[in-house]
Fold this protein.
Amino acid sequence: MTPALETIGLTRAFGAVTVADGIDFRLAPGARHALIGPNGAGKTSFVNLVTGALAPSAGRVLLDGADVTRLAPAARARRGIVRSFQITSLFRNLTVLENVTLAVTERHGAGGGMIRPAGKRRALIEEAWAGLEQLGLADEAARPVRTLAYGRQRLVELAVALALRPRVLLLDEPAAGVPAEEAGRIVAAVEGLPAELAVLIIEHDLELVFRLARRITVLVAGRVLMEGSPAEVAEDPRVREVYLGGRRA
Amino acid sequence: MIAADPVAALAARHRWRWPEALPWLAAVAAFFLFPGYLALGAQILASILYGLSIDLVLGYGGIVTLGQAAFFGTGAYTAGLLAAHGMGAPEPGLIAAGLAAAALGALSGLAVLRLSGLAQLMATLMVAAMLQSAADKASAITGGADGLQNMAVGKVLGLFAFGLYGRTAYLYALAVLFLCFLGMRALVHSPFGRSLVGMRENAARMTALGAPVFARRLIAYTIAAGMAGISGALYAQSTGFVAPDSLGFDRSGNILVMLLLGGIGRLYGAFIGVPLFMVAQDRLSDLDPAYWYFWIGLGLVLMVRFARGGILGLAARIRRE
Ligand SMILES: Nc1ncnc2c1ncn2[C@@H]1O[C@H](COP(=O)(O)OP(=O)(O)O)[C@@H](O)[C@H]1O
Ligand SMILES: [Mg+2]
């Protein structure tokens, strides 16, 4: 079966630091796949390379078998490569509902319309609203994002990503540092995603990883150390040494 | 208190509200109340349009520019040269000026918008400075530093001549401003306008949503340039004169001050900041010709200290409390 997402020999360095060292990676359709590794391993850089935010020095990115390496980041997003940001990246002065409505509007290809008022496209706003309700954010819909607590902002971050109805979803530490209630919501949302959607989740909390992921890739210093089922990864002595040894306290 | 229904509130954002009638009522009232100041009034109205163009690029688009006069002056010279060469009909002149300035906006935007921060600021400055020095040098065409003087501007609608008291100029400027404002208002409430605000807030996020950030900014920059050009043409036609300072730094800088004063990114900031600044300039330069700019500067410092969002920002804050 053609992978939903594939990278071939993806490589990139920042000066002397190689953040991606010939990464060959496949994400199957419907995958629940975790990417783990110590801080600075290159996990976020990998997401940046896949979305196009970072240009590789070598290697290719394929979406459903089609080469997207030369596509601009926005074009890749329109094709369904969607990410959430490790460092919350939202429209802080806009309301929660506006944040998600912007995403819905772009997904419908309506973001360039210059004549009809945005408010008249009520269906788009309703769709955004439905996304908020699903994540328990409806009560905060009219509040500027900047006034929300961190955990709630992380939920908005997820709501914005989901509003794009991704084909491939890359979640960069969606629940790190988030209070239990919101973390629970995030996990529930990920568990409730459509079965055919391919999900890659970067996460430090191994308990969460084992709960969500059916496959795990371990990245160390820009290289794939191993890939396997959660059981295989848990038993691998190299993983224990490298990953657990370098893990954040 | 949070609105009862956030969906309905967002869906109603573009609806007209009664205070939006105030600037127009004030403008009509001023026509009857200050018959001796209509020439100044026409310049104020043209400058409000110029302020709107700044609000579009900077307030909504988040594009920092110190060279909007490039477009203002291009519009002024386009209308001026047409009128000096026997094509003095004001309406076609206005349209030609808007198109010329928009074309320059699109062209220079291709370069300017690839930059960011200080480099972008310098690039906008350079475009205007280059044009100003070109207008200065090409005296055979532009009249050089003396300005373009032999303009023969025709009648508005073929009926109303630009007279000494500025009645025609005032009403003409008011009508043009109103039409342009309707367009601008529709634009900022459109999905395109909302996405501009998104890009201003967080361009990387808009890209991740799939929005073509560069293309949309270029469109906004081009439209704003066209508006500035129309404003320059209004100036040229109502004064019958164009000089290189229409492309100058003062022209780019003062309008920023006026908009900051009124409130930026709020659509109505220009309607407050521009008249306030220009009337203050007119009065203070009479009362205190040497130091009038000092008083404006002082006002600005106080505003930045106590009312970041300009007068409109302050008003919104007071209303919320
Ligand atoms: N834009 C950048 N410029 C220079 N170095 C960077 C940049 N982005 C990341 N790095 C470096 O690349 C390495 C990998 O970073 P990152 O991909 O964020 O790791 P992870 O997400 O696994 O913690 C780190 O050493 C980081 O300092
Ligand atoms: Mg990271």
